[in-house]
Amino acid sequence: MTDAGVRECGRPxxxxxxxxxxxxxRGSFYRWPYVSFLxxxxxxxxxxxxxxxxxxxxxxxxxAGPGGIELAGVQVVWRx
Length: 80
Prior knowledge:
Layout: E1 25-26, E2 29-30, E3 34-40, E4 43-51, E5 54-65, E6 68-79
Antiparallel strand pairs: 1-2, 3-4, 4-5, 5-6
């Protein structure tokens, strides 16, 4: 776990139930949103799933910034 509350993990070993189960949805949003990252060299892909109809995939590039590593040139590559 990092100080930002983010940790690297492998694929879950078991299913945690249906994502759209009523107890996991609050209005249009999931109670616990799901954000995933894929890193390859200087490129980063990430997906954000905030609700059943609030999905998107983005791609960007890592760059050095005043506070450390930052994402630059982020573009939405898919929205659903």
